[in-house]
Structure formats: C-alpha cells, structure tokens
C-alpha cells in the first residue's frame, strides 16, 4: 500500500476505509482498495448470536496458519473469536509469472518490488487477518499494486 509520498507503507498499520480509494497516480475511477470490514462484522455477529459454530468460522488452511506464525505482521487487535490472542496479517500477491496460489509477501521491500514490475502486468495484493491460535481468518482488504498500468 502506498503512503502519501508514494512509499510502501506497512500493511499492518495501513488504515482500512469503507470505500474504495484511488491510488496515487491512478486514473480517476481505476485502482483502489476494497475493504471487507462489513462482511467481517456480519460474520462475527452471526457467531456471537450462536448462528455459526466456532469450527465454521475458525477454518484457516494449515498453510495460512503456518504463514501467519512464520512471516505474518502482528497487530494489536485481539482475535474476535477466541479473544485470547492477537491477530496477524498475511499478505499474498497474485499476478503474471506467479504460481496459481500466489506469493506470500514477507516484507515491505518485497511488496515494493512487485509494484515496480508493472511491465509484466497487474498484480493484486490480498491481506488476510489470521489468529494462529484458533485459526480464525478473514480477508481484510485487497488492492492493486500497479493500477496505473490499467489506464
């Protein structure tokens, strides 16, 4: 994610808005961020009302949990399900010349490198929040790394 000066900001500290925001340098109406907080809140509400069981919401794939433990970015937010552990953000990039399952991003430097690869095509970043303890997971947001290319 880019900050106001065009630098890559930490994914863990990036603000999450409720609307799509254009990226710097992106044509009006192209690029932006999709935030999934409303879907997240609905799912949590359904769980707390007893309409969903814990095994239905805590179903993270073992590889996602491993990535959360090994390379995820810690947050200060408690898990909304177990409330005993902090959430971790795991980021994946999808695009040309990458495996079908994407590439797990571990540093801001690595994310910046994908942003510079705009000649190869458009890359999308998916940020997933994960609780490594109870296996809660939810897609937090998605955004394009090089939206100006689609102009």
Sketch the topology as an H/E string, one letter per element.
EHHHEEEHEE
Mean pLDDT: 81
By DSSP (H or I, 4+ residues per run), the number of helices equals: 4
List how many beta strands DSSP finds. 6
Low-pLDDT sequence parts:
1-30
Tertiary shape: elongated
Structural class: alpha+beta
What percent of residues adopt helix (DSSP H or I)? 10-25%
Q: Work out the count of structural domains.
A: 1
- End-to-end distance, in Å? 19 Å
Q: How big is the Rg?
A: 16 Å
Strand fraction equals 15-25%
Biggest beta sheet attributes: 6 strands, antiparallel
Could you characterize what this model shows?
The chain has one domain (33-150). Strands 1, 2, 3, 4, 5 and 6 form a six-stranded antiparallel β-sheet that branches. By secondary structure, the protein is of the alpha+beta class. The chain has four helices and six strands, in the order E-H-H-H-E-E-E-H-E-E. Mean pLDDT is 81; it is low at 1-30. It has helices at residues 37-48, 54-57, 62-71, 108-116, and strands at residues 33-35, 73-78, 86-94, 103-105, 124-130, 137-144.
């Amino acid at each position: 994610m880019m900050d106001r000066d065009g630098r890559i900001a930490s994914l863990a500290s990036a603000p999450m808005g409720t609307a799509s925001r254009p990226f710097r340098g992106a044509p009006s109406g192209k690029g932006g961020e999709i935030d999934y907080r409303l879907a997240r809140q609905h799912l949590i509400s359904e769980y707390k009302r007893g309409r969903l069981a814990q095994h239905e919401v805590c179903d993270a794939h073992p590889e996602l949990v491993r990535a959360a433990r090994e390379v995820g970015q810690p947050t200060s937010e408690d898990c909304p399900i177990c409330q005993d552990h902090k959430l971790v953000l795991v980021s994946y990039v999808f695009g040309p010349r990458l495996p079908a399952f994407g590439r797990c991003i571990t540093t801001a430097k690595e994310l910046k490198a994908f942003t510079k690869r705009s000649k190869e095509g458009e890359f999308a970043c998916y940020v997933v929040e994960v609780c490594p303890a109870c296996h809660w997971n939810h897609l937090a947001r998605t955004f394009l790394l090089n939206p100006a290319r689609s102009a």
